[in-house]
Amino acid sequence: EPIKCCFSPRYQIHTGLQHSIIRPSQPSCLPAHMDTLPQRLREAGYSTHMVGKWHLGFYRKACLPTRKGFDSFFGSLTGSVDYYSYGSCDGPGVCGYDLHEDEGVAWGQEGKYSTTLFTQRARKILETHDPTERPLFLLLSLQAVHTPLQPPKSYIYPYRDMANVARRKYAAMVSTVDEAVRNVTYALRKLGYYRNSVIIYSTDNGAQPFTGGSNWPLRGRKGTYWEGGVRGVAFVHSPLLRRRRRVSKALLHISDWFPTLVGLAGGNISQVS
Ligand SMILES: *[C@@H]1O[C@H](CO)[C@@H](O)[C@H](O)[C@H]1NC(C)=O
């Protein structure tokens, strides 16, 4: 059944965050009155967990993922975090350790590669949760592929002939993401979720050609309003889909996820402003 009409999702411009990123020292975050996807899914009976990059503000507790609808959080609150040390800087010398668990600091993870660490955490959530008891919403927001370009050495080998060093590293990091997707899908199958799952894979914006990315044949890059900046790649995979193996050319906007997914979960899709 297609989701029935008449809900107009909210454009992100209404969050008041239509500027560049939230810098670590900037006192800014999602407005308090806007319900998030996990809040609505939780109301609909879901357990909600987030692993990975948040970057929607943290300057006070009310901004944290655990106050925005997630039962648990494990990941980073800022952007461009180091994949191994979890160091994050807001200019020279203004640096800190940014790996967090719920509302505290997750010390002692230095040296563990973030794509692998976050994927392991996702697996742990799948192992601990009982899908026969409650449905689960898991948001795995990997840092990859983003600067700093830090692939583990072993992933570079297949791309060793690429002349452009940034592109070579970038390709290797994409391979770690591919592997993460494989591992999570495998865990979903092994732990009894898969047949009743909807897997959504999506980028958050276009690539950055200055650091190994490419949006060819589209013009522009992340941070611009050309298609190369705002037209992202995504796919939906689910054994529940009736028309599978289909390429959709329809325009899907990021604001469609909220009503589509809350509707699918049987939740409340009305807008509270
Ligand atoms: C995927 O799983 C394999 C086998 O457990 C592990 O060696 C690898 O590090 C995992 N990769 C990621 C990206 O989590």
TrEMBL record:
List required co-factors: Ca(2+)
PROSITE patterns of this UniProt entry?
A: SULFATASE_2
**GO molecular function terms here?**
metal ion binding; sulfuric ester hydrolase activity
Where does the Sulfatase N-terminal domain start and stop, copy by copy?
Answer: 5-266
Keywords, comma-separated and alphabetical: Calcium, Glycoprotein, Hydrolase, Metal-binding
Under the heading SUPFAM superfamilies, the entry gives: Alkaline phosphatase-like (SSF53649)
A Pfam family found in this protein is Sulfatase
| UniProt similarity note | Belongs to the sulfatase family.
Name assigned to this protein:
Arylsulfatase I-like
> Organism source for this protein?
Notothenia coriiceps (black rockcod)
